[in-house]
Amino acid sequence: MEHLWLIPAFPLLGFLTAGILGRRLPKAAINAVAVGSVFLSLLWSVKSLYSLWPLEMAHVERYFDWIRVADLRIGCDFAVDRLTAVMLLVVTGVGLLIHIYATGYMAHDNGYPRFFACLNLFMFFMLTLVLAANFLLMFVGWEGVGLSSYLLIGFWFLKKSATNAGNKAFIVNRIGDFGFSLAIFLVAMNFGSLDFGAVFQGLGGWPVEQSAGTLTLVGLLLLVGAAGKSAQIPLYVWLPDAMEGPTPVSALIHAATMVTAGVYMIARTAPIYLKAPMALEMVAYIGLATAFFAATIGLAQNDIKKVFAYSTVSQLGYMFLGVGVGAFSAGIFHLMTHAFFKALLFLGAGSVIHALAGEQDLRRMGGLRKKTPITFWTLVCASVSIAGVWPAAGFFSKDEILIAAYYHAPWMFWLGVVTAGMTAFYVFRAIFLAFFGEYRGDAHPHESPPSMTLPLVALAALSIGGGLISVPRWLEPMFPAPEHHSPALVVISVAAGLTGIALAFLFYVVRPGLADAAARHLGWLYRTVLNKYYVDEIYNATVVEPVVEGSRTVMWETVDVEIIDASVNGVAARARGVGQILRKLQSGYIRSYAAWVLLGAVAALIAMGFAGGAR
Amino acid sequence: MPQAVPLSWYLILSAVLFTLGVAGFLFRRNIITMFMSIELMLNAVNLSFIAFSYHLKQVDGHVFTFFVMVVAAAEAAVGLAIILTVFKNRGTLQVDDISSMKD
Q1: What pTM, to 2 d.p., does this model score?
Q2: Cβ partners under 8 Å of residue A122, min gap 6
Q3: ipTM of this complex prediction, to 2 decimal places
């Protein structure tokens, strides 16, 4: 027993303390509780992993039976294997840095205790998701992170756009969860268990499906769930809007951890996908399409957080591509490095926003290099990393994915390379617009406090050096991957990244007018991209509007008003009508009542007479 | 031993008294009179109970009569108290003026 349950228990305690007593506690106490609980989680994770070293086999801990129906037994079980170990360290490690950052970023907010309560609640559910040893417990964490995501996106609930974004995230995720829950039912039906170990053992008897079958269906339904949580086409629309939440939330939940849950889930259920190659192929297609599509949108966004949001969608697409082409360890590797550099990008963006008193528009930034040097240099580290330049962390993980894609299908590699070029371009576009040239706003930029810059520096170190942590080798026992060495491909993908950077440098530093000219030249294409391909509008017209309109005309005005309300009111009206007639008997004159009694008695007597008298 | 009064005479007297009670209850407007009519009806019933009891040589009728008398006494106590209160509050004993239950 390693008492794994303690890992999520610490943040839960933090949530309860900050949530119940928050208003009565001083800020320092909340800091200590919130940051301390995550720190304890990290410590306990490290301690558990240390004593379980080298973790060749999954270590399962069974606490109690949660549900027992007939032969189906669903326990409250936690498990750790090498995959979980990576996730545990990423979640608690990056989570800790972001908690520290948030104590600085949120310092002046009235909802301070509520913010950290929700953040700790998120950590609890995320760790439950990661540690769960069966599908249902994973689903609990899955839903829980969705809930805390909703709470935190709508954190500034007085802002209509924030609550709308929260609703959107929650509702879009419902669609994905619908797929996930159907997949769970199918697994329970076919395997009689929801335990990962038992299900994967039961898989041994199943053939690899050459055409669509049960496992393919399970895989596709899981993919629907993963696409919802990890913001893949066609369910990605909630993630860019989710940037309405505070920036530490964007960094922790909507970049580093929660949105990668889909990738984790697919890697976790890899044995199912390996038996269902069609479903796995679909994962790759969805991932590649999302990576490319979101990257094109990212090219034209002017809100710094929106740029990074689309970048997140795009990078998640890369991870899907990785697991989809069978390189599960590469996908998880990219998940980890992405957690580092994307958390850093968001925290850096938050630092910039903090410095400019809430300004998020890139067109009203510029020249911040001198004013906020730490933010600038750390952001450059993150950007170099995401662009895939050697020797930053992003280089290693992205190359693993692209090379695996090449050996799966060369065209996937080329599309991935183009996407990598665009990635480098839009990220450096944001950097150049924000930090170079002349300052175009009217705030007084200042560097952020140490509580914010220290996590930035730590994450910068991880973004650069994180590639040395060889996740693929660590995951080798779980996901054996063929070793591909291809210097040519590596050179091509790095060249694409460098080209992107160079183009961004040309467009936004050397010849600042060039970008506008190009935008004017491309006219409708630019406008389409700027408006995100009108996807929100299309969804509005094809899904949202019909549902709202149908709800109003059919469900409300017909079913509710004319059937339910009408029947209830009708019954009441009939009762009143009968009462109107009967109340005439109640004259209030005692003598009339007496007369009725007499009449009744006489009538009874007559009736008895007809019936033959009393006998 | 003189010839006993036949049962039917008692019953006829009882019926007459009861009808008088009913008529009085229905047609008089004064609450006191109506109250007395009720007593009349009760006693008419008592009379028939006693007559049957004597005729059938059974004691059940006596028991019932005592019950009726007890109830009548209790009713008189409560009823007169109500009538007093009504008179105090309304200043009238005309039963048709006391019809506020209608509303």
Answers
A1: 0.80
A2: A11, A144, A145, A148, A149, A152, A252, A253, A258
A3: 0.79
Q: What are A315's strand-pairing partners?
A: none
* Structure tokens belonging to residue A428: 């450096």
Helix, strand, coil percentages, rounded to 5, for chain A: 75, 5, 20
Note whether residue B72 is domain-resident. Answer: yes
Interface test with B, best of A582, A584, A591 (most B CBs within 10 A): A591
If contacts are CB pairs under 8 Å, which of residues 50-89 in chain B contact chain A? none
User: For residue range A445-472, what is the model confidence (pLDDT) as tens digits?
Assistant: 888 888 888 999 999 999 998 888 888 8
Q: For residue B56, give the CATH number of its domain.
A: 1.10.287.3510
Residue B35 belongs to domain spanning: 29-97
Chain B residues lying within 8 Å of A591, measured CB to CB: 25-27, 29, 34, 95-96
Residues 6+ apart with CB under 8 A from A402: A413, A416, A417, A420, A489, A493
Query: A594: which chain B residues are within 8 Å (Cβ-Cβ)?
Result: 25-26
- Helix locations, A390-483, DSSP H: 393-408, 410-435, 450-465, 471-474
In a domain, B14, yes or no: no
CA dihedral sign, ordered A339, A341, A346, A351: positive
Q: How many domains does chain B have?
A: 1
- Model confidence over A344-378: pLDDT tens digits? 999 999 988 888 888 888 888 888 888 888 899 99
- Distance between B31 CA and the closest CA of chain A, angstroms: 10
Domain assignment of residue B37, yes or no:
yes
Distance (Å) from the C-alpha of residue A600 to the closest C-alpha of chain B?
14
Residue B35 placed within a domain? yes
